[in-house]
Design brief:
- The chain is built from 18 helices and 16 strands.
- It is globular, with a radius of gyration of 24 Å.
- With 492 residues, the chain is an alpha/beta fold.
- The strands form five sheets. It has a five-stranded mixed β-sheet with strand order 4-3-5-6-7. Strands 9-8-10-11 form a four-stranded mixed β-sheet, with helices on both faces.
- The protein starts with 25 loop residues before the first helix and ends with a helix.
Length: 492
Amino acid sequence: MITASHNPELDNGVKIVDPDGGMLAPEWETIASDLANCSDSDVKSFLERLIVDQGVSLDHPPSVYIGADTRPSSPQLAKLCVMGARALGANVRDFGQLTTPQLHWLVRKANQTQSKPLVNEYYSEIAASFTRCMRLISLATGKDEAKQREPTKLTVDCSFGVGALAADAFRVNDNVASWLHLKLINRPGEGSVNDQSGAEFVQKQRQFPKNTSSTDQDRFAAIDGDADRLVYFFSGKQQELCLLDGDKILSILAEFIGKLLTKAGAGSDIFSSLKIGAVQTAYANGASTAFISKQLPTECAKTGVKHLHAKAHGLDIGIYFEANGHGTVLFSSNALNAFRNRQKELVDNPAASPESLACAQILCELEYLINQAVGDALSILLVTEVALSFLDRTLESWSATYTELPSRMTKVDVPDRFAIQTTNAERTCTAPEGLQSRIDDLIASVGGPARAFVRPSGTEDIVRVYAEAATQQLADQLAGQVSDSVKEFCKK
């Protein structure tokens, strides 16, 4: 996938999709980097060694799928990828412009079904599942069907990126348009990719994107330049930006799926053996973790979407999101079989509750509605709309489900970031000796619902500091004290 995701338009790069449709396996990241950096004269010998070391079969010609975003530099880079793959004997399918999650979906589908899927199948599968879920909500909740049939309006900031093309296909799809009226702003050609727009800008800057204002009363969502991140937002009573970030998306999907499981499984223990959990990083706001833990068990992973995805993949139902809006819901074969078996039990039972059956049917639909390969902003947007309808929530009532604790993130320049070592998903510092005890004392001195942690940057000689407390003043104070302690201990 030729894209630089949420980065500025002049940047570009490549994302490589694993054969299972997920992100590239960590061990292959190193191989890819070594290959990219070796000299031209060494490429042949490098590949020959790789074939032997990894046991790569040459019995069948490989297939390479290529997609690109809408940056001006993407077509030429995609052309070079096509030439390189064909030079190595690959069968190439060049899909042109599409989102990163679409390419992941296509690779997963191709290897699962041993077929050559089309992009239209992505739209038709997700849109058809969306409308089936929406039709089932009135049965699942007893909601007034006539009221529910009034289409919801949503304005989507497309970050001047390729996501607008996919969002437009959903916008005109009858299965979506019957329930959701999408208005798309910041389309390709109207500005530079990600320029003061998109999920990254809204989430990090807490500002309204281009072509919106604080006086707008619309419901808003924002995606990033390659459509793998999603946030919602609206204008509050004081015309302030009210953000519904990845933590908030995780919270509503955890509540939604938790209630589906409770209603569908009523009077049965069919779901009792399933491993279910919500996965966050240490950066997740403590208030969100407290709320989510009332719906589902919570787990913590190291920072980085690849760590979250791997941990969620180890569960039968794994929901993960970063605050930046990157995440998804993954279902194991055990979970999907349990959903189908429960649906069959309820269909075969004349005394079964219509609500229970409808909830079981919605559970069966989620594997088609939610992209099972990778986080997909548009797929998650649609399932979030289902969850909001099921729970009868507005953006305002969703925002009010919990109030975030004030927090502060800072960074400290240090001579050697590797002097800081951590464990417990980066929440506990194991070196330098004595630093964690100092942090614990500082947290205790602040009192209340306070916490703080430190972790080394993955790319530069800085240490990142995060602090939460009951007030912004206390969070700032705690972050400053922890930063000072990092400087002190890293000089020793």
